[in-house]
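Let us work through a complete example step by step.
Step 1: write down the sequence.
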Amino acid sequence: MAIRVMMVDNDISHMDAVKQYFSSSSSISVVKTFSDGKEAINNLDSDYDVLIVNMLLSDVNGEMILDKYRELGLSKLVIVTSEYISPEMMASIGEFKPNYIIKKPFSVNALETIINKVINNRSGVSSNLKIEITDLLHSLGIPSHIKGYTYIREGIEMLFDDSSLVGSITKELYPTIAEHYSTTSSRVERAIRHAIEVSWVRGDYALMEEIFGNSVDYDRAKPTNSEFLATLADRLKLQKEIA
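Step 2: predict the structure and record it as tokens.
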């Protein structure tokens, strides 16, 4: 059964582009779109799985919609979007506990990845995966306080959910991570590369050789970002298949 999406945004052309993109999809369907916030409030209890709401609406703000959503006691998945995200807005949005916050503009490809991600989180798959990724990254000597650690963890989750992204690391994976953390693709790429360099110095030699021995010459070169992310995602998939 397709994931049913309801969108609320003043940008009608953006919603039309999203509808067009998913019109041929068998897994995601945009069932309702509203450019009028008041009309959206009146339809919050309708039949859908994921609510995508822009915080900067012209008639009523997104917080009013989320407040009504909470008042109704709904249990849909919520993705919040906004052209501008300040620390104050993040704190305000956080009170409603949305499943994901993404800064506009973003590609429809990125939105598709995020919708699948929140659905997987709901099923409980990603919560266990996060623990496994965290344990693996710690074993590889990557400290959790550096930005590359967070980006690598996000990248592995994305590749675990959609292995086809391995061919679109630069065009899709980096931009999606960058949008989530309000940064740039080049900074994501550099932070991941730095984290790999740290890992190569601090990590468990035996484990590194076991994981990357077949994909790179451990004694001569570090894996590329793509090799590092894809190899770890494949390892976690294999472990789950064996289990």
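Step 3: interpret the result. Residues 65 and 71 are 10 Å apart (CA to CA).
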